[in-house]
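Researcher: We are triaging several targets before committing to wet-lab work. For this one, the compound of interest is zinc ion. I'm pasting the protein sequence and the ligand SMILES. What I need is the predicted three-dimensional arrangement of the protein with the ligand bound, expressed as structure tokens, so it can go straight into our comparison scripts without reformatting.
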Amino acid sequence: MTLSLLGRAARYPAGLRDLGAGLYAWLQPNGELGESNAGLVVGDGESLLIDTLWDTRLTRRMLDAMRPHTANAPIRRLVNTHGDPDHCWGNQLLSGAEIIATRAGAADMLGEDPARLRLLAQGGRALGRVASRRLPLPGVAQMAGLGSYAGMLAAYDFSDVEVTPPTLTFDGKLELDIGTRKVELIEVGPAHTPGDLIVHALDEKVVFAADLMFVGVTPIIWVGPVENWLAGLDRIAQLQPKVVVPGHGPLTDLDGVMAMRSYWEFVAPAVRERLRAGMDAAAAARDILQSPEFASQPFVRWDAPERLVVNAEIIARNDGGLSGRVSAAERLRLIARMGQLSLELGGCR
Ligand SMILES: [Zn+2]
């Protein structure tokens, strides 16, 4: 049995997938926390890398696997699809390459700090130990929740990460010539994060959708609004891709895009209805996950359903007129709530 980075049974093969015509996807099953995908576009004499991974060890392994294809077409440009660290904390290994992101994505990349995540990983282990003693203290449930989530960070090594920001930023759209082939970078954020973009390989009808697409894993929205996420999915559909490389999960196509759409179309009104009835976001998330309507949806089988806690919170914030990233403290609180709900739901994380 092959294991995922988080130590679970891998549901699909890891590594480099040949999409034909010099396009490749790098897949890290099962697409859960930090198990992010990347991509490679090999042109005449040069290549474009789409995202690095959460640490240098994982990124080095990917670059080694890509070497047979990049030996005569070195990676001269790297595009970071957004600022989440699992998509850019291997950037330092691409020294000399131009690093491209949206202006909003580039600014967002500076918002997380390897030292802070190292601390959270260590703290998570300690919290998990305290919580496992089931002391009748107030806050133990939250500690257990934070501990269970932060415990997953042990799969990654942030000890030598040097945050390496983009050298070229843009707003809206940017066309690139990679050797003789054309690639479009299309800004679709703010949605998952402040500066999301997708990569469209025009001639091959392949879209690298980054974290606008999760397959078999519940998506998480950190900024919103949901309506932007839906518009981004529509944009992908308009491009009529034959293959969609998600940010997390196995390769998909337009059916996967429609499945992602149906999640948000179900969740957004369900959250709003419960907020109007006086529930807070966490209560709304719990209520939805335990409802018969949710049980009959295809996404009931997706991993990490507890992410609905964050999704509900962000919908509530956006509806209340707030935008942008939540504060670091708020983010920790939300992570603790997700972990707590996951434990309550009987999740093993
Ligand atoms: Zn991601």
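Researcher: Any quick observations?
Model: The CA atoms of residues 211 and 246 lie 7 Å apart.
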